[in-house]
TrEMBL record:
Cellular compartment(s): Cell outer membrane
One Pfam family recorded for the sequence: Porin_4
Quaternary structure, from the entry: Homotrimer.
One record GO biological process: monoatomic ion transport
CDD domains named in the record: gram_neg_porins
Protein name: Outer membrane porin protein 32
Lineage: Bacteria, Pseudomonadati, Pseudomonadota, Betaproteobacteria, Burkholderiales
Cellular component GO terms held in the UniProt record: cell outer membrane; pore complex
Keyword list, A-Z: Cell outer membrane, Ion transport, Membrane, Porin, Signal, Transmembrane, Transmembrane beta strand, Transport
GO molecular function: porin activity
């Protein structure tokens, strides 16, 4: 009995010390649901879905101050479907993010684990539609890997507005860049006053380790106070799937009141494989905030597919409704509610 008490006392003292050092552990999340009405060639589909403008998720984020500007942290984040209450990926406990980190002021941050790619973050900054909703042609016509496993990342501090990010993913076999799903990524950003510029590169091996998807993003946005203009250039190449494309997107967001905005954009995809499967899209999005935590949104889009192109109107974290035939055009409207907590 005495031995158990001593061990318990030591454990309690250790836990008390840990609690004293911990700055915070925060639970957060987003719940997004929508109604959609989309024509995919020969018929129209009405559906309710999850993750239209934002991916529905919940997560835990922790930071511990270790002294001298050194901090330990972690993020655990899981997506879910509000339509039926299921996990977005039943095979994973935390499908969106799961990493531990160390950071130090003026040195940067080091992360280990499953992480969201810098391509994803850049897309949201290069698009008036946040790279989401059916209105985003940039989202619908781009090709890259959103998240990578077994990834080591370094995020530098910003110096004169310039920062860099480096990601190295060991894939699913642990053989580095020679293994399946291995990856490497790099990002360069410039953020100063009203200007945002970025260049991102990503290379991810496929699951069979027979080819590599290589993708890039270049572009930026400029804030004119109530109006923000966006320009993006994207490339993607995967030989085994006959994917070789260039995408150019331009969009603008007008904040016509403190709680409301409207966005309009055009995106063109050029198929460089020689098959002529080009595509273009026009999108419109309106957002209205009922409070700091709750917003309504409405989106509309027309997607023009050429020849055998099979692009669809997707959401933030939901697949688009399949086309009735290759080369069919897609047009739709979407109405949704988003709540942040």
């Amino acid at each position: 009995m005495k031995r158990e008490i001593v061990i318990g006392s030591i454990a309690l003292a250790f836990c008390s010390h840990a609690v004293a050092q911990t700055s915070s552990v925060t639970m957060y999340g987003v719940i997004d649901g929508f109604l959609e009405y989309t024509n995919t060639g020969t018929h129209t589909t009405a559906r309710m879905g999850s993750s239209g403008l934002y991916g529905s998720r919940w997560g835990l984020k922790g930071i511990e101050n270790l002294g001298g500007g050194l901090k330990a942290g972690f993020v655990l984040e899981q997506g879910f479907n509000i339509s039926n209450g299921t996990a977005a990926d039943p095979a994973r406990q935390f499908n969106r993010q799961a990493y531990v980190s160390l950071s130090k002021d003026n040195v940067g941050e080091l992360r280990f684990g499953r992480q969201t790619s810098p391509m994803f973050f850049s897309e949201g900054q290069l698009d008036a539609f946040l790279g989401a909703s059916i209105a985003s042609g940039l989202n619908n016509l781009s090709d890259y890997t959103v998240r990578t496993d077994n990834t080591v990342a370094y995020i530098s501090p910003a110096i004169a507005g310039v920062s860099t990010e480096l990601y190295y993913g060991f894939g699913t076999t642990g053989n580095g860049l020679t293994g399946a799903n291995a990856s490497y990524q790099a990002a360069l950003r410039y953020i100063r006053n009203r200007v945002y510029l970025t260049a991102v590169y990503q290379a991810v091996k496929n699951a069979t380790n027979t080819d590599t998807l290589r993708s890039t993003y270049f572009g930026g946005h400029y804030d004119f106070d109530h109006v923000t203009a966006y320009l993006a250039f994207h490339t993607a190449k995967l030989g085994s799937a006959n994917i070789e494309r260039q995408v150019v997107s331009t969009s603008v967001r007008w904040n016509f009141s403190p709680v409301a905005s409207v966005s309009l954009g055009y995106t063109y995809q050029h198929d460089r494989s020689g098959r002529g499967n080009n595509a273009q899209q026009v999108g419109l999005l309106t957002q209205y905030f009922l409070s700091k935590a709750t917003q309504l949104y409405a989106a509309a889009a027309f997607l023009d597919n050429r020849k055998a192109a099979t692009n669809t109107l997707m959401g933030a974290a939901t697949a688009g409704i399949p086309l009735d035939y290759s080369g069919a055009n897609a047009r739709g409207v979407q109405f949704g509610i988003t709540h942040f907590f």
